[in-house]
Amino acid sequence: MELWNAITSLSPPASKFYDEMFEGTQVRGHYEKVQAILSRLSIDERAARQRQMNRRLLEEGITFTLSQPGQSEALERTIPFDLVPRIIPGAEWEKIERGVSQRVRALNAFLKDVYHEQHIFQDGLIPRRMVLGNRYFRGEMMRLSVPGGAYVTASGIDLIRDEKGDYFVLEDNLRSPSGFSYIFKGRSIMTHDFPELYFSHAVRGIDRTLDAFRSSLRAMAQTDKSDPVIALLTPGSFNSAYFEHAFLAQQMGIELVEGRDLVCEDHKIYIRSSRRKRRVDVLYRRIDDDFLDPLAFRPDSMLGVAGLMNAYRFGNIAIANAPGTGVADDKAIYTFVPDMIRYYLNETPILSNVPTYLMSRPEEREYVLQRLDEMVVKETSLSGGYGMLIGPSSTEGERAAFAQKIMADPDNYIAQPTIKLSTAPVCMDGRLVSRHIDLRVFALMNGNQVHVLPGGLTRVAMKEGSLVVNSSQGGGCKDTWVLA
């Protein structure tokens, strides 16, 4: 749906979705300067500005590896970056910030409880089998002391808005959430290539976040050294998010290592060197639990470090995020997070969940199976837009196949009503068109303190009508501004 056939015609067609820039036919107050500046540019000028931004992404190597169905080789490409920012007023952001901080604190408390006293099972709030039988639950973490009590050092909480403009949490990402680098590069591009737009607004800065990130990692070090050694463990340059790994290591001044660069001796982890070995105090890992240590998890892993978990048990290294955190971002466990907030924090949830049906409950399963054409069905352990059925755009055959999967393994699926995601204008060939968006908000935990990055990453479904915003599925992104 095209918003503007020409920039001089600024009245958008009526929409059944909440639009970030327009309320009816009127431009929202916090977007008036955006409208004024864009209206001074011709279609060709906007198209040229957009091409310039995309060239910069390519020149700086800001790429993502995209796997396409039916293709044997993955494609490396830039993530589409849109020149129209997403703007969030300060008062609106304040609620988001408090809600995300509250949620992360509750999830961290849940992980500590699950791997120690397990009070939440004893009090009957969550079925024990749902956690202990979860593929991400790690028995190796039972009774193991985590430095600073921080299981979730870095998290990404995905938010959406419904047709009324209300925010809902769509899912929690607690293992190794990606997208940090695109926020900083997006801001750099906007200030460099569209300064007249950026500097016309009082936007909250994001530079302090990298310092907060490094401080959170440094606080985990179990050493008296004034300058502990912090390393980022990457699977290597073939990984889809390798650019982000290299970017974060460089910007935070920490070591970028692969498993082959590390060695375990006397239950301590060292960086191999031709001169002298350096002991690692904190490891920020960007690989999954399964591949961390071939002696503890998958014996065929070539990505991890043999002996890492023993070093961790002896307290000789800290790992962020802690192994086993994935049990808390499972899509079935997600349904219990509001209860966790009440249980652990004795607080009322600030942000609500999307209504969710557990296929393990017979009555909810029956309800969903009769309405598959209205539902989004997800595999509980998958992310990135994989393993999903989007009912309204599915075929009868696809729904029948998913119904069989649900009946065969109901514990592996949840369902949610199709939410009318909010929309925002994006620039395509100089013309502004409407696309669906979400918002990934990043939070960093340091002890009991949570730092929420102002703005986060707005992800865009670049295909008309699509609700899938994930970069792994071809989605793009926008710079997100929180007004000071």
TrEMBL record:
Pfam families: CP_ATPgrasp_2. This is Circularly permuted type 2 ATP-grasp protein. Coiled coil: none annotated. Transmembrane segments: none annotated. It comes from the Bacteria. Residues 85-461 form the Circularly permuted ATP-grasp type domain. It comes from Cohnella rhizosphaerae.
